[in-house]
Amino acid sequence: KKAKHVLQVQILPASAINIKEEENMKLEKLTISNFKGISELVIDFNGLDANIYGDNALGKTTILDAWTWLLFDKDSSGAKDFNVKTLDENGEAEHMLDHSVEAVVLLDDGE
Fold first, then answer.
1. What does the alpha-carbon distance between residue 91 and residue 62 come to, in Å, rounded to a whole number?
2. Measured between alpha carbons, how far is residue 77 from residues 7, 15, 47, 99, 101 in Å?
3. CB of 87 closer than 8 Å to CB of 37
């Protein structure tokens, strides 16, 4: 029987991981569509901090790449020329898909 691999998101209060309360921006919700290996993913942080963990090749770096692409137009390693397209089972880019990353953030001023 083949083991099932699951990407897990653990939502934690700031006090659990010693996050400073004076941060300027807090990620409330992240929505990823057709971005690299993720066809659709919505993470609602509910104002809390999160740990994202799981086995290799489940999407942890893809989530980080999506976030940094949204903010800086680069992947998490700083590359601007990386491929955001969804790949099929043969490693070929799937065409005619809309690729998007959306975020809801809370700023210090409450906006």
1. 16
2. 21, 29, 27, 20, 18
3. yes
